[in-house]
Each structure stands twice: as C-alpha cells, then as structure tokens.
Design a protein that fits this description.
This protein is α/β, with parallel strands linked by helices. It has 2 domains: 64 residues; 111 residues, Nucleotidyltransferase, domain 5. The protein has 8 helices and 5 strands. A 5-stranded mixed sheet has the order 3-2-1-4-5, sandwiched between helices. Strand 2 and strand 3 form a beta hairpin. The chain is elongated and about 75 Å long. The model has no long low-confidence stretch (mean pLDDT 82).
Length: 223
C-alpha cells in the first residue's frame, strides 16, 4: 500500500514569498495589510495573515527588524538607497536617540558616563558614584567620590576606564554624557574636556533638558 504524501495546506508559492520579503526590505514602514494590498496590484494574492507568517519565518515581523534587514542589504550588496529609504532610516535614528537607544558596533565604540548621587554619610558628606558603561559589551565600571566636578570625571576615565580598555587592547573612541558641569565647559579651562582632547576621545552630549537620552546609564541607576 502506497503512503500518501502530506498536504502542506499553508505552503506559499516561492514567488509570493520572495515578493513579500522584497517589499518588506524595500519599504519597511508598510504594515501587513498594506503589503497585501500592494502585492495584489502586482498579481500576487496573499492575505495580511499570510504576509505576517512569511515575516515571522524570516525575522521581519517588526519594523525594527525590517529596518535592520534594509541596513544589512545596503551594507552587503552596496545598493543605492532611495530618498524614501534614507528618510525612514534617518527618522529611525532620531527616534532611537530620543528614547535613549544607542547605535554601537564593538567594545570601545561608545561609552556612557554618568554621575549618580548615592547619599550622605555622617562625617564624610555627600557621596557620588561615577559610572561608565561600554554600550556594546554592557561592562560597567564605577568608583565612589566625595564630590563631583570635572577633575573627578576625568579621574574616572584615567583611573578605571582607559586602563580597562588597555588590558583588552582596545581604544575608547567616543563617550556619551549629559550636559552636567562636570562634563561640559570651555576646553582650555575644563579638566574633563582637556582629558578627552589629549586622549583623542570624541564627546557626544545628550539633548538639552532631556537627560533620558543617556538611557543606558539611567536604566542602570534606575533614575
């Protein structure tokens, strides 16, 4: 007796699957209903649910994942992005910055430094913590101080951070801080700014009146 082959009820034609993937990457902002409608105009019949199923199989089921796929395709294949694709990517980067999301590529690419008020100890006074986080590896370095100023912020880098990267045979390329006076000032008169210049470390500052932009440190401190 011959055995019947299983019927793959939900199997999608390869040409449809490819069309769904292509449009997801070419226009990552489109939702599943819009994709279904656009493909129907081209003669591909697939329901919104079918679109989502294909997205799930190829890790394209969220806007962020589709954006990531577009960026990867651009980098790997060297394709020229359209004005619309460029605008979508730029808008996404701005939104990431606004919500404290950070673009990072390897350890040392970007570090985040912040000052955290620990509390008051009788006989000692105010206690502050200088915190540094490597945004790629999420390695955290911290040191306690009895004050906060530019010299203290620079000491944190000199005493803790740069020795750590030296041990890993890596360089710290860029650092993100808020606009506190311990981090910002006139370079020639500011110890922290001078230290960054000497060590050739780029400095990115959070948006004014938006400390949450330095979200990785804020989440670590739970502030």
């Amino acid at each position: 007796m011959s055995r019947r082959k299983p019927v793959l009820k939900n199997r999608v034609d390869e040409s449809i699957e490819k069309a769904v993937i292509d449009i997801a990457i070419d226009n990552p902002a489109l939702g599943q209903l819009r994709v279904s409608n656009e493909l129907r105009k081209k003669g591909f019949i697939v329901s919104p649910g079918g679109v989502r199923s294909i997205w799930l199989r190829h890790d394209l089921h969220t806007f962020k994942l589709r954006l990531k796929a577009l960026e990867s395709k651009s980098a790997q294949d060297g394709i020229v992005l359209t004005k619309f694709q460029l605008s979508v990517l730029e808008r996404s980067k701005e939104e990431k910055k606004a919500h404290g999301e950070i673009e990072t590529h390897h350890s040392g690419y970007l570090g985040s430094q912040d000052t955290y008020y620990v509390g008051h100890i009788k006989g000692v006074g105010h206690i502050y913590q200088q915190t540094f986080i490597d945004t790629y590896s999420k390695v955290v370095l911290a040191k306690l101080y009895d004050r906060k100023n530019a010299l203290i912020a620079a000491d944190m880098l000199n005493d803790q951070v740069l020795p750590f990267f030296d041990q890993q045979e890596l360089r710290l390329l860029r650092i993100l801080t808020d606009r506190g006076t311990e981090y910002c000032g006139i370079r020639e008169q500011h110890e922290y700014q001078l230290y960054l210049a000497i060590e050739d470390i780029d400095h990115t500052k959070t948006k004014a009146k938006s400390p949450q932009t330095n979200g990785i440190c804020e989440r670590f401190h739970r502030t």
